[in-house]
Amino acid sequence: MEIADELTIFDEELITKLNQLASNKIEYWDIKSGVGTGTNLDFTDQKSKEISSYEIRECGIRTFKNGGWGFTVIKDLSNNSIEKGFRNAIKLAHLTESLGKNKFTLKERDPLIKTFRINSQHNIDDINIEEKIDLVKYHEKISSTYSSAIKNTRTFYMDGHSNSVFINSFGSYIYQDLSVLRMFTLAYAQKDGILQRAVNSVGGIGGFEITKTEKASKLSEKTAKEAIELLDAKSPVGGKFTVIMDPKLTGTFIHEAFGHAAEADTVLNKESILEGKIGEKVAIEDITIYDDPTMGQGKKLNLPYELFGSYFVDDEGIPSQKTIIIKDGILNNYLHSLETSSRMDIAPNGHGRASSYTARPQVRMGITILEPKDWDVEEMIKDTKKGILCQDFQYGYTDPTTGNFQFKCKLSYKIENGERKELMRDVALSGMTLEVLNKISAIGNQDSFSFSDGMCGKGGQGVRVCDGGPFIRAEDITIGGLG
Amino acid sequence: MEDNTDIFSLGKYGLKLAQNKSSNMKCAEIFFGKNKYLNIEVEENSVKNSEIGTDRGVSIRIIDKRGSLGFAYTNKLDKKSIDKIVNLALKMMKAGTEDQDFKDLPPHYQNYPTVTGLFDDNLRNLEVEETNEDIEDIIKVCNDDDLAISQSANFVSHYYKKYIFNSNGLEVNGKETICTISSNITVKDKITGETSFGYDWQAERQKMKLNATKIAQNALEDAKRNLNRIKIKNMKAPIILTPFGVISLILSPISSAINGETFQYKRSFLVDKRDEIIGSKFLNVEDKALMNGLAGSSSFDGEGVPRKNKRILENGKFLNDGLLHNSYTAGKEGIENTGNASRGSYSSIPAIGPTNFIMNPGDQSKQEMIKDVREGIILDYTGDSPNIATGDFSGLILHGNLIINGEIKESLNETMVGINLLDLFSKIDAVSKEFKIFGAYCAPYVRIENVQIIGAAH
Question: What pTM did the predictor assign?
């Protein structure tokens, strides 16, 4: 088995030494360490603004005693530094424990000894820089020359290859060899003093093949087209409407307005609207929501790579798995980490994730999905007398304690008597999560299913996620506008 | 940590190596960063995690005569690693496109301004035990209150050292410290079961200036003020922005809109508006880098250029030189560099950012301003941000209250505001003498007359 040179330091001898240092002092410890290389390309108006490359190594050491955590971060992978960092982390766990009022233990979980590798069709390390630049130049050219109304374009490409080791006091040893790739295109269009912006991205776990799919090849064309379309879109008028959300927006809603409240650490911190509601009906019967970050889903969707939000194992050594959050309207389970699962006396479900080897895991989503049901999209639209069809999202945010959310969507169509009418831009939808989940009047079928990738932020840490679902229709949603 | 002499010799070695390996090189810059930090986390109103960390790294920018830039970084500080990143950066540079807008990296500077109060020796070797008192103070505020049910809080301190060398002879280094305390408190109304949260934070260069109790108390008051939420009907009414609200709807968008790069790409709602009146006479904004002891101050920018104080908006007029530049954007326009290059760490190329970004306070008392409002809103937090390209803002008032007959009343639920920023700026009709410093921002209370508010009540 090939192991990156710098990571061979995590051998039996070191692990034995660490267990000795830990014995009787702390109840649990883990170490995540990785070495990574990568390339970033940032082009604007067909010119390179930044072409960069990096090589870094990092290590995060976590310790636990009776409700208190300690954590040390080091960037030097030598026996001395690791041992010193470990001793410091033990001291930190003690200090935390001495001041902490919340006492609890961590239940012992099964160790995992495994190697996970991503086998890319086109390994990013084998693609030379000129070919990556040609790809970005290709996209820049398409969007820049799409129309004279396109005033400014930007294409951003990033790839990264990392090798990492995870070891802990349960006896796990997990080695991972992963690569990630993401590409963004932006376009600004201008006409008669109006300036509009469109952004699209594609990403996954894998290699250069991620840039070769139909969606990826057409990315810049789609972006330029959308920016132009938005020029003719009107400013929305505020009020209450029936709203049809496309899969992208459905995914955003499930993730932003609902998903964060299902994270068990948010629940324990009394910042969740779902606190104390396991077993209760929180949505209409047709609603089933799950989070499934397991690998192998790319294939099912005919993609030559793994989905952006997927992972083999979380950052606490627990394998990824499908968790049903809401089943037929009833709240079934939260998303858990080692800590939350121990405290709530339930099996961990692999949602303890960190943004890097030097950050502490928190409960995070992976791939959050609303299950499709039965409606045909065109029939859904025909069935709507007065409403708004909202497509794609720009961003969203939620007040977790109240469930008050807002999302900005990219493009919307007014619906009148079952027909799409005028185009509107910057439509902002807002509402209360639990109210909306009970005002869903139609859920689209499998044909209308789609998902999107993104980075989710929480506690200063960004992690890779996907979210998705079918088209859905919700009644009585507040729309904000400038008028 | 390695001592200084290693860094100086590594820096010179790197620049020389780049020069020797490329006949086509125009200029190069090498940046070293070192950081030590401490982070204490409180969750569920109890100490949860204590963390210490170190980071150090080096990056190199090499630009050739065509203007093509290659950049590489690593976090090992030895000759072999310098060799590696020089080779990587040269490879990137050779593959890049030409850029005729690139003029040069900054020159050698003889003098740098003195800015004091940026370093606290107590923070250099801060031990976790030294934070105990602040943490206990913050926890006590939540424990002692009947309505408070939980708190998340953080104490973070950083000690940074930076060294910048470039092939034009620029050479500068410095050290600074910063510590932050933040509190997020959840309260619950025992009768209605309604919950809400409140938030406050403080950043200082000196540890003794942090007031943990006050921050938690402010967060608690904020949370309580946010209970009793009601939906309101649509209305056109005055809005008073708290200092936090001013940061999100006035200061932060202006600082983004005057970013030299954003401006040059015409992605700013202020393009073509220089020398024009864009707001009422109450709108006075400055970018002041040389204030002793403030969180946003420094003597040199992310490229080693000496910092300055500058005026951006005066009595509502957007000044002709009220833009923020780094060496690239200033060179492109052929004007003097404003020293606003910002670099978060060695792992990124310099972008552009403000220093201490200040809206000057006015004459009125905040009490008077509120008393004058018969029916309106006080807005603290939106959770959203304006579109910098157009100036349009349409967002939820996540924390805001009704003002009725000069008194602050119920807080708002599902209420949105829609306005274009240029409209907002021209409608500023009062500015308080009270102000608050939030890290690198300083803002007073500001009243805007006549804004469209969209409510959820039928």
Answer: 0.92
Q: What is the pLDDT of residues A279-289, one digit of tens each?
A: 999 999 999 99
Among B49, B349, B384, the residue with its CB nearest the CB of A360 is B49
Testing the interface with A: which of B220, B454, B458 to mutate, by most A Cβ within 10 A?
B454
Instruction: Give residue-wise pLDDT tens across range B76-112.
Output: 999 999 999 999 999 999 999 999 999 999 999 999 9
Show the DSSP H helices in B240-287 as ranges: 243-246, 252-257, 260-264
**Pick from A49, A130, A480: which is nearest to B416 by CB?**
A480
CATH 3.40.50.720 fits A5-231, yes or no: no
The domain ranges of chain A are 5-231, 239-480
State the complex-level ipTM. 0.91
Give me the domains of chain B, ranges plus CATH numbers: 4-222 (3.30.2290.10), 228-458 (no CATH)
Q: Which chain A residues have a beta carbon less than 8 Å from that of B149?
A: 270
Strand partners, B232: none
